[in-house]
Amino acid sequence: MNIEIENIDSCKKKIKFDIAHKDYQAKVQNSYLTLARQVKVPGFRPGKAPISMLEKRFGPNVKKEVMTQLISERLAEVIEEKGFRSVSPPKLLEVEAEEGTDISVSALVEIVPEFEIKDYSKVEIPLEIARVTDKDVNQVINHQRERQGTKVQVTDRPVEDKDFVKLDFKGTLNNKPFEGGEGSDHIVQIGSEYLLKDMGNQLIGMSVGEEKNISVKIPKNYSANKSIAGKEVIFYVSIKGIQKNQLPELNDNFAKNVDPKNKFTSLEDMKQKIRSELEEHARGEALREAKELVTKKITTMNPIEVPESLIEEQIKHMVIQALKKEQQAENQKEAINEEEIHVTDSQKKEHRESAIQLLQQELVLDQLAINLNVQIDENELNAEVSNMARMLGEADANKMRKQWEQNGVLVRLQSRIKRDKTLDAVMKEVRVKEELVDRKQHIDNN
């Protein structure tokens, strides 16, 4: 098969090739023989109808199907032979087919451009591990104490921060009640995420039996009731009770009973194990950030042109994800029909740069995986599926895997594992500078 490749640009190739007339004619004849066994022709036994009669009745359709199949097969052969990584179906440009002559075909294929990863062994990557302090350890222990605390009534003082308050409330906007603005015997903790901060601050200092109107500024991003978001409302509140969380005494007995699965033997043992867990978490976070940085650095060293069809596909994915996130924030349960999503010019402009950067990183990581011969075996995949099944509380990991195979989740899981293994291998080849940093310094640096 005579093949010509014309470079349109780094991502587009024009392919020209011929299909021998004898190959085309042989496939047409085979199609007629197959058709003869399948169709019923009056006056003839199955498989005995003359080819001339079949050609007269079905000729145009048979020839069209054969032509389409041959072109598709030969295009696939050329793409594989040349090692092209096509990102979309080839676009047929021209087919010249005269009776009795070879068929000439030209098509356009969009591919991932070939590139070589430059030497990155001298790249320096900081591994900044946040230092775990006594304060960090104590915060975890205090959280455990609060969970083990018992609520006791307070009668000798007004409301303080962290108290649990029982109250009646009635909200109005412009002297009119609004949805969700009224409740009775409502219990909420001062300072918790479930109470508007502006409202909680004004409850501090009130005593049981006290009533008053308070003015509350509703945050602009308030999603529970958008009609009052960003506006100032008035709440009439009545305090009906105050409770505080009485914490257990901090001693060895508390440590032994707070979390049976950890089997702390003493308070000191509890502190040491919590510190170890926090240090392990800090190292994991530092490694994750270092991997993100090394990905960006190697990608910057290897700028590549990204196929336009991939960019458009990624932009649409980003638009859909943004819509889903917006729906979740508004507690909407209606499913998005992804096929009907139309990406506007403004959305293309908004997401284009991020889409290109993301795709460049993924293409570089794909090439690194090839260079480093990163493979995922079934044992690794099964272990990860089993681990995730445990985390999700799914008893049957095999059943979950079959579901994931059908909905595409398993493919994404394989990609994530391969990405992680590739970056693990890369981190062994670059210059990693490890250092302990204060948490505030770590946050400022990021």
* Total number of helices: 12
* Shape descriptor: elongated
Low-confidence stretches: none
Element string (H = helix, E = strand):
EEHHEEEHEEEHEEHHHHHHHEH
- Terminal Cα separation, in Å? 57 Å
Radius of gyration: 34 Å
Can you give me a brief rundown of this structure?
The chain has 446 residues and is of the alpha+beta class. The chain has helices at 21-38, 51-82, 134-148, 197-203, 252-258, 267-301, 308-329, 345-371, 378-392, 397-407, 409-427, 439-445; strands spanning 3-7, 12-19, 91-96, 103-110, 124-130, 150-153, 164-173, 176-189, 211-217, 232-246, 431-437.
Structure characteristics:
446 residues; alpha+beta; five-stranded antiparallel sheet; four-stranded antiparallel sheet; 12 helices; 20% strand; elongated
Structural features, described:
This protein is α+β, with helices and mostly antiparallel strands. It is 48% helix and 20% strand. The protein is built from 12 helices and 11 strands. Strands 6, 7, 8, 9 and 10 form a 5-stranded antiparallel sheet that branches. Strands 1-2-4-3 form a 4-stranded antiparallel sheet. Strands 5-11 form a two-stranded parallel ribbon. It is elongated and about 105 Å long.
Task: Outline the secondary-structure elements.
Layout: E1 3-7, E2 12-19, H1 21-38, H2 51-82, E3 91-96, E4 103-110, E5 124-130, H3 134-148, E6 150-153, E7 164-173, E8 176-189, H4 197-203, E9 211-217, E10 232-246, H5 252-258, H6 267-301, H7 308-329, H8 345-371, H9 378-392, H10 397-407, H11 409-427, E11 431-437, H12 439-445
Parallel strand pairs: 5-11
Antiparallel strand pairs: 1-2, 2-4, 3-4, 6-10, 7-8, 7-10, 9-10
Helix pairs in contact: 1-2, 3-6, 5-6, 6-8, 6-11, 7-8, 8-11, 9-10
